[in-house]
Automatic annotation (TrEMBL):
It comes from Octadecabacter ascidiaceicola. HAMAP family: THF_DHG_CYH. This is Bifunctional protein FolD. Transmembrane segments: none annotated. Residues 140-285 form the Tetrahydrofolate dehydrogenase/cyclohydrolase NAD(P)-binding domain.
Length: 297
């Protein structure tokens, strides 16, 4: 079997189109423009590229985009004051503090200082708790984008076996909650899981989010299963230069799977599209307006 390639880039463009339509309507009917603020601490070149592309797409869907760059050595108090300023700014509906933060800053403290209603990453403990109890929340972007692609491909996910590889707070745990919410039987596997290949072989849905390049191999995959590859790893090419690969070994997995997301062009673009969708959702909620359909979990 050769897997259907789930085109995250095209799907993300469609989602951004829907967001743009709603933003235009918000402006026209209510005179409201959603605003997204991104806070970047330090000079990490990869982060700068990523923040720049987020800013560009934010503007493309008609939203206000604000970037705050802070020095690598910024104090925790200064960063908390910046978050507070954005919490208090009525033109800002979404706040994203780019992670990871330098080691001297307590990222849990910083994330939990964001107004939960503006927490478009869905990382605040209040949103984590709301998601875990099935209440309306802000849902983390990468799991939300992955869920949208899974629903689109399968229709109903009810009763399917899902194995999430990775137990991070930003992907693995919220992904498992969303799959459970869609009535999957969910296993969270990780680096200490005994006989990981045989656990993964039970899965109708495999979400690879471990951060280890090309770790998941084709002979771990049940024929016809869907593979969502969350990893974005830059590796050296034998002939020199670098390329991006996922946490799944694409060629061997695609030979066995029923469907697979590529890297690049899979989960990554959906993450950014969902960030914009979350900003729109936050803006609608802040103004007591009906939120867009199909853009939330
Ligand atoms: N508070 C916070 N929230 C985040 O969501 C967050 C973060 N911090 N820190 C950094 C990571 C990284 N991240 C990516 C999202 C999309 C692509 C993406 O679209 N990648 C393209 C490839 C880009 C390329 O070619 O380099 C793709 O997969 O097709 C990449 C990386 C969000 N992050």
């Amino acid at each position: 079997m050769t897997a259907t390639v789930i085109d995250g880039k095209a799907f993300a463009a469609k989602v951004r189109g829907q967001v743009a339509e709603h933003v235009a309507k918000l402006k026209e009917e209510h005179g409201i423009t959603p605003g997204l603020a991104v806070v970047l601490v330090g000079e990490d070149p990869a982060s700068q590229v990523y923040v720049k592309s987020k800013g560009k797409m934010t503007v493309e869907v008609g939203m206000k985009s604000v970037e705050h760059r802070m020095d690598e050595n910024v104090s925790e108090a200064e960063l908390l004051a910046m978050v507070q300023k954005l919490n208090d700014d009525p033109t800002i509906h979404g706040i994203l503090v780019q992670l990871p933060l330098p080691g001297h800053l307590n990222s849990d403290l910083v994330i939990n200082s964001i107004d939960p209603a503006k927490d478009v990453d869905g990382f605040h403990i209040s949103n984590v708790g709301l998601l875990g109890t099935g209440q309306k929340s802000m849902v983390p972007c990468t799991p939300l984008g992955s869920l949208m692609m899974l629903r689109d491909h399968h229709g109903s996910l009810s009763g399917l076996n899902a194995v999430v590889i990775g137990r991070s707070n930003i992907v693995g745990k919220p992904m498992a909650q969303l799959l459970l919410g869609d009535s999957c039987t969910v296993t969270i596997a990780h680096s200490r899981t005994k006989d990981l290949p045989s656990v993964v072989r039970q899965a109708d849905i495999v979400v690879a989010a471990v951060g280890r390049p090309q770790m998941v191999l084709g002979d771990w995959i049940k024929p016809g299963a869907t593979v969502i590859d969350v990893g974005i790893n830059r590796i050296d090419k034998p002939e020199g230069g670098t390329r991006l690969v996922g946490d799944a070994d694409y060629d061997s997995c695609a030979a066995v799977a029923g469907a697979i997301t590529p890297v690049p062009g899979g989960v990554g673009p959906m993450t950014i599209a969902c960030l914009l969708a979350n900003t729109l959702t936050a803006c609608c909620r802040a103004n007591g307006l009906t939120e867009p359909e199909g853009l939330t979990a």
